[in-house]
UniProtKB/TrEMBL annotation:
InterPro entries attached to this UniProt entry: His_Pase_superF_clade-1 (IPR013078), His_PPase_superfam (IPR029033), PGM_Phosphatase (IPR050275)
Protein name, UniProt field: Broad specificity phosphatase PhoE
Pfam families: His_Phos_1
GO molecular function, one term: phosphatase activity
Cellular compartments per GO CC: cytoplasm
Amino acid sequence: MATIYLIRHGQASFGKDNYDQLSPRGWEQGQVLGRWLAGKVTPNAVFGGNMERHRETVEAIASGFGQALPDMQAVEGLNEFDHMQVVERLKPEWADRHVMARDMAAFPKPARLFQQVFEEAMARWISGEYDHEYAESWGAFQARVIAALDELIGYADGGDVLVSTSGGPIAVIAQHLLALSDEKALAVNNVIANTSVSRILYSGPRRSLAVFNNYSHLEAEDPALVTFR
């Protein structure tokens, strides 16, 4: 059976004008993963969403890998959902980033506040009760991610592949393969580390989740590199 290596992107630039680019730590995480993959994996193809953090993660992996990787092929269905729209439907005032920054700065642990709001906003989104308020419903997001998985397997043609994507698509794929509830998928999404690797074994229509959320490469190099946001 061939293997799909599902990789969550490196740490993005939370709180910056361009969230979609990797932070310095995100670049380092990708380089560490590249060194870890070297000698273990010879990918036939590399896929990713068409977001900046997906592309930069592949660049960081390549720099640590030490040899050329296949050019990344963009599969739009592997993009993350619009997490800020999901948050803003719960807290419309946070559409103004200055208000959001003010509220977070007033909280003793700003990252914890954002996580609490994010989890509540996600629960609202996946409930299905407010689908008309979102550009993409939870059900539509699930459908496009699974369609993207089918698409990249078709392109891979039985070979091992690297896939640079985000936590949401990885959680949906795990949900699909393990028949998890929506609530369990939400819980899964909350624990996926940056540059963690999940492995799917596939052969024809058969697909199995063999490894989920492995970030031992970061722990071995420097535990401080382990991040979830």
